[in-house]
Amino acid sequence: MTPPYSALAAGYDAVMAHVDYPMWAGYVQSLIREHHPDAASVTELGCGTGALAVALQPYGPAPDGYAYRAYDGSEAMVRQAREAVRQSGRPVAVGRADFLEPVPGPPAEVVVLVYDGLNYLLELDEVATLLGHVRDALAPGGIAVIDQSTPANSVNHADGFDDAGDTDAWAYVRSSRYDAGARLHTTEFRLTAPDGAVTVETHRQRAYTLDEVAGAVAAAGLEVAAAYDEFGLEPATDETERVHWVLRRPPAGAPSA
Fold first, then answer.
1. DSSP code, position 46
2. pTM (predicted TM-score)
3. Which DSSP category does 209 fall into?
4. Distance, C-alpha 137 to centroid of its chain
Protein backbone atom coordinates (compact mmCIF):
# COMPACT_ATOMS: atom_id res chain seq x y z
CA MET A 1 0.00 0.00 0.00
CA THR A 2 1.35 3.43 -0.98
CA PRO A 3 1.63 5.71 2.09
CA PRO A 4 -0.51 8.88 1.93
CA TYR A 5 1.19 11.88 0.34
CA SER A 6 4.12 9.91 -1.08
CA ALA A 7 3.09 9.70 -4.75
CA LEU A 8 0.50 12.48 -4.35
CA ALA A 9 3.12 15.04 -3.31
CA ALA A 10 4.41 15.63 -6.85
CA GLY A 11 1.07 16.98 -8.05
CA TYR A 12 -0.53 18.00 -4.77
CA ASP A 13 -0.53 21.74 -5.47
CA ALA A 14 -2.36 21.21 -8.77
CA VAL A 15 -4.96 18.94 -7.14
CA MET A 16 -5.49 21.50 -4.37
CA ALA A 17 -5.39 24.60 -6.59
CA HIS A 18 -8.83 25.56 -5.25
CA VAL A 19 -7.37 26.20 -1.77
CA ASP A 20 -6.66 29.90 -1.18
CA TYR A 21 -3.57 29.68 1.01
CA PRO A 22 -2.89 33.45 1.06
CA MET A 23 -6.41 33.96 2.41
CA TRP A 24 -5.91 31.21 4.98
CA ALA A 25 -2.59 32.70 6.05
CA GLY A 26 -4.25 36.10 6.46
CA TYR A 27 -6.94 34.53 8.63
CA VAL A 28 -4.40 32.71 10.79
CA GLN A 29 -2.48 35.96 11.15
CA SER A 30 -5.65 37.74 12.30
CA LEU A 31 -6.02 35.12 15.06
CA ILE A 32 -2.38 35.51 16.06
CA ARG A 33 -2.81 39.28 16.15
CA GLU A 34 -5.90 38.91 18.34
CA HIS A 35 -4.57 36.33 20.77
CA HIS A 36 -0.76 36.79 20.79
CA PRO A 37 0.10 40.09 19.08
CA ASP A 38 3.75 40.07 20.21
CA ALA A 39 4.50 36.64 18.77
CA ALA A 40 7.71 36.41 16.74
CA SER A 41 8.15 32.67 16.17
CA VAL A 42 5.96 30.04 14.49
CA THR A 43 6.20 26.27 14.22
CA GLU A 44 3.91 24.71 11.62
CA LEU A 45 2.96 21.03 11.70
CA GLY A 46 1.57 19.18 8.70
CA CYS A 47 3.05 21.85 6.44
CA GLY A 48 2.42 19.95 3.21
CA THR A 49 4.11 21.57 0.23
CA GLY A 50 4.88 24.76 2.15
CA ALA A 51 2.19 26.98 0.62
CA LEU A 52 0.88 28.24 3.96
CA ALA A 53 4.39 28.75 5.36
CA VAL A 54 5.44 30.89 2.41
CA ALA A 55 2.29 33.01 2.77
CA LEU A 56 2.29 33.32 6.59
CA GLN A 57 5.99 33.83 7.34
CA PRO A 58 6.20 37.41 6.01
CA TYR A 59 3.45 38.56 8.41
CA GLY A 60 5.89 38.36 11.32
CA PRO A 61 7.80 41.27 12.83
CA ALA A 62 9.97 43.45 10.61
CA PRO A 63 12.41 43.24 9.05
CA ASP A 64 12.48 39.49 8.39
CA GLY A 65 9.05 38.14 9.40
CA TYR A 66 8.45 35.21 11.70
CA ALA A 67 11.21 32.88 12.81
CA TYR A 68 9.48 29.96 11.11
CA ARG A 69 9.96 26.19 11.23
CA ALA A 70 7.72 23.85 9.22
CA TYR A 71 7.38 20.08 9.53
CA ASP A 72 5.54 17.31 7.74
CA GLY A 73 5.40 13.56 8.27
CA SER A 74 5.82 12.76 4.56
CA GLU A 75 9.37 12.95 3.24
CA ALA A 76 7.98 13.54 -0.27
CA MET A 77 5.98 16.55 0.96
CA VAL A 78 9.05 17.84 2.82
CA ARG A 79 10.99 17.81 -0.46
CA GLN A 80 8.21 19.77 -2.16
CA ALA A 81 8.09 22.27 0.71
CA ARG A 82 11.84 22.81 0.65
CA GLU A 83 11.68 23.59 -3.06
CA ALA A 84 8.75 25.99 -2.55
CA VAL A 85 10.64 27.77 0.21
CA ARG A 86 13.78 27.95 -1.93
CA GLN A 87 11.87 29.50 -4.81
CA SER A 88 10.12 31.99 -2.52
CA GLY A 89 13.31 33.10 -0.82
CA ARG A 90 11.52 33.12 2.55
CA PRO A 91 13.59 32.11 5.63
CA VAL A 92 11.63 28.98 6.56
CA ALA A 93 13.37 25.88 7.96
CA VAL A 94 11.66 22.68 6.78
CA GLY A 95 12.02 19.21 8.32
CA ARG A 96 10.25 15.91 8.88
CA ALA A 97 8.23 15.18 12.02
CA ASP A 98 5.25 12.89 12.65
CA PHE A 99 2.23 14.04 14.64
CA LEU A 100 2.77 11.40 17.33
CA GLU A 101 6.40 12.35 17.93
CA PRO A 102 7.74 15.29 19.97
CA VAL A 103 8.17 18.43 17.88
CA PRO A 104 11.85 19.17 17.15
CA GLY A 105 13.46 22.46 18.01
CA PRO A 106 12.99 25.09 20.70
CA PRO A 107 9.52 26.16 21.88
CA ALA A 108 7.72 28.66 19.65
CA GLU A 109 5.23 31.36 20.52
CA VAL A 110 2.76 30.00 17.95
CA VAL A 111 2.10 26.49 16.65
CA VAL A 112 -0.05 26.11 13.51
CA LEU A 113 -1.74 22.98 12.17
CA VAL A 114 -4.46 23.49 9.56
CA TYR A 115 -6.27 21.78 6.69
CA ASP A 116 -7.54 18.66 8.44
CA GLY A 117 -4.21 17.44 9.81
CA LEU A 118 -5.78 16.56 13.14
CA ASN A 119 -8.45 14.48 11.38
CA TYR A 120 -5.81 12.07 10.06
CA LEU A 121 -5.48 10.73 13.61
CA LEU A 122 -8.20 8.11 13.84
CA GLU A 123 -8.39 7.71 17.62
CA LEU A 124 -9.04 10.35 20.28
CA ASP A 125 -6.11 9.21 22.38
CA GLU A 126 -3.89 9.96 19.37
CA VAL A 127 -5.42 13.43 19.12
CA ALA A 128 -4.63 13.98 22.81
CA THR A 129 -1.05 12.80 22.21
CA LEU A 130 -0.65 15.24 19.31
CA LEU A 131 -2.03 18.09 21.41
CA GLY A 132 0.34 17.15 24.24
CA HIS A 133 3.25 17.52 21.81
CA VAL A 134 1.78 20.85 20.68
CA ARG A 135 1.71 21.98 24.31
CA ASP A 136 5.37 21.03 24.75
CA ALA A 137 6.26 22.84 21.51
CA LEU A 138 4.80 26.10 22.83
CA ALA A 139 6.52 28.61 25.04
CA PRO A 140 4.51 29.36 28.21
CA GLY A 141 1.64 31.63 27.25
CA GLY A 142 2.00 30.67 23.60
CA ILE A 143 -0.94 29.79 21.36
CA ALA A 144 -1.79 27.09 18.83
CA VAL A 145 -4.06 27.65 15.84
CA ILE A 146 -5.49 24.26 14.86
CA ASP A 147 -8.40 23.46 12.60
CA GLN A 148 -10.60 20.39 12.29
CA SER A 149 -13.18 19.10 9.86
CA THR A 150 -16.41 18.05 11.55
CA PRO A 151 -19.15 15.47 10.87
CA ALA A 152 -21.26 18.31 9.42
CA ASN A 153 -18.66 18.86 6.71
CA SER A 154 -18.64 15.21 5.66
CA VAL A 155 -22.43 14.88 5.78
CA ASN A 156 -23.13 18.13 3.94
CA HIS A 157 -20.59 17.44 1.19
CA ALA A 158 -20.69 13.65 0.97
CA ASP A 159 -21.02 13.83 -2.82
CA GLY A 160 -18.69 16.78 -3.35
CA PHE A 161 -15.24 15.28 -2.96
CA ASP A 162 -15.04 13.29 -6.24
CA ASP A 163 -13.19 14.70 -9.22
CA ALA A 164 -10.54 14.01 -11.85
CA GLY A 165 -7.89 15.95 -13.67
CA ASP A 166 -4.33 16.17 -14.98
CA THR A 167 -1.12 17.51 -13.50
CA ASP A 168 2.46 17.65 -14.80
CA ALA A 169 3.21 14.51 -12.76
CA TRP A 170 0.17 12.31 -13.49
CA ALA A 171 -3.54 12.18 -14.21
CA TYR A 172 -5.72 11.55 -11.19
CA VAL A 173 -9.14 10.32 -10.19
CA ARG A 174 -10.28 11.15 -6.66
CA SER A 175 -13.19 9.28 -5.10
CA SER A 176 -14.52 9.55 -1.55
CA ARG A 177 -17.00 7.88 0.74
CA TYR A 178 -18.21 8.71 4.22
CA ASP A 179 -19.25 6.15 6.83
CA ALA A 180 -21.56 8.21 9.04
CA GLY A 181 -21.74 5.50 11.71
CA ALA A 182 -17.98 5.36 12.18
CA ARG A 183 -17.57 9.03 11.17
CA LEU A 184 -14.78 7.84 8.88
CA HIS A 185 -14.05 9.61 5.61
CA THR A 186 -12.04 7.60 3.06
CA THR A 187 -10.56 9.19 -0.05
CA GLU A 188 -8.83 7.22 -2.79
CA PHE A 189 -6.47 8.81 -5.31
CA ARG A 190 -5.78 6.81 -8.46
CA LEU A 191 -2.70 8.33 -10.10
CA THR A 192 -1.69 7.42 -13.66
CA ALA A 193 1.81 8.45 -14.72
CA PRO A 194 2.68 9.36 -18.33
CA ASP A 195 4.17 5.88 -18.82
CA GLY A 196 0.88 4.28 -17.76
CA ALA A 197 2.01 3.20 -14.30
CA VAL A 198 -0.81 3.43 -11.77
CA THR A 199 -0.44 4.23 -8.08
CA VAL A 200 -3.30 4.22 -5.60
CA GLU A 201 -3.19 6.20 -2.36
CA THR A 202 -5.87 5.82 0.29
CA HIS A 203 -6.41 8.60 2.84
CA ARG A 204 -8.56 8.16 5.94
CA GLN A 205 -9.83 10.86 8.28
CA ARG A 206 -12.15 10.77 11.25
CA ALA A 207 -14.70 13.54 11.73
CA TYR A 208 -14.58 14.66 15.36
CA THR A 209 -17.17 16.65 17.24
CA LEU A 210 -16.47 19.86 19.12
CA ASP A 211 -16.90 18.13 22.46
CA GLU A 212 -14.51 15.33 21.56
CA VAL A 213 -11.73 17.71 20.59
CA ALA A 214 -12.39 19.89 23.65
CA GLY A 215 -11.88 16.81 25.82
CA ALA A 216 -8.58 16.02 24.10
CA VAL A 217 -7.50 19.66 24.57
CA ALA A 218 -8.14 19.44 28.30
CA ALA A 219 -6.33 16.09 28.53
CA ALA A 220 -3.29 17.67 26.88
CA GLY A 221 -3.10 20.49 29.42
CA LEU A 222 -4.06 23.26 27.01
CA GLU A 223 -6.67 25.97 27.49
CA VAL A 224 -9.29 26.92 24.90
CA ALA A 225 -8.97 30.60 24.05
CA ALA A 226 -11.57 30.36 21.26
CA ALA A 227 -13.23 27.97 18.81
CA TYR A 228 -14.29 29.82 15.67
CA ASP A 229 -16.83 28.95 12.99
CA GLU A 230 -15.18 28.47 9.59
CA PHE A 231 -13.00 31.50 8.74
CA GLY A 232 -14.88 34.00 10.86
CA LEU A 233 -14.97 35.17 14.45
CA GLU A 234 -18.31 33.70 15.50
CA PRO A 235 -18.20 30.81 17.99
CA ALA A 236 -18.26 27.34 16.45
CA THR A 237 -21.39 25.23 16.91
CA ASP A 238 -22.36 21.64 16.22
CA GLU A 239 -23.36 22.79 12.73
CA THR A 240 -19.93 24.21 11.94
CA GLU A 241 -18.15 22.41 9.10
CA ARG A 242 -14.64 23.62 9.93
CA VAL A 243 -13.55 24.73 13.39
CA HIS A 244 -10.50 26.90 14.01
CA TRP A 245 -9.33 26.41 17.58
CA VAL A 246 -7.07 28.85 19.36
CA LEU A 247 -5.44 26.99 22.23
CA ARG A 248 -3.11 28.40 24.84
CA ARG A 249 -0.36 26.91 26.93
CA PRO A 250 -0.83 28.30 30.45
CA PRO A 251 1.79 30.87 31.47
CA ALA A 252 4.61 29.68 33.69
CA GLY A 253 3.48 29.49 37.30
CA ALA A 254 -0.22 29.31 36.41
CA PRO A 255 -2.16 26.98 38.72
CA SER A 256 -3.14 23.58 37.31
CA ALA A 257 -6.78 23.02 36.44
1. S
2. 0.96
3. -
4. 15
Residues 4, 247, 38, 59, Cα dihedral to 10°:
30
Whether the CB-CB separation of 131 and 123 falls below 8 Å is answered with: no
How many C-beta atoms surround the C-beta of residue 64 within 10 A? 13
Q: By C-alpha distance, which of 165, 193, 164, 192 is closest to 176?
A: 164
What is the separation of C-alpha 125 from the centre of its chain, rounded to a whole number of angstroms? 18
Cα–Cα distance between 44 and 200 in angstroms, integer? 28
- The answer to whether the beta carbons of residues 135 and 129 sit under 8 Å apart is no
- Segment-wise mean pLDDT, segments of 10 residues, the chain, 257 residues: 92 95 98 98 98 98 97 98 98 97 97 97 98 98 98 85 92 95 95 97 97 98 98 97 98 67
Within a 10 A sphere around the Cβ of 103, how many other Cβ atoms?
Answer: 23
The count of other CB atoms within 10 Å of the CB of residue 10 is 19
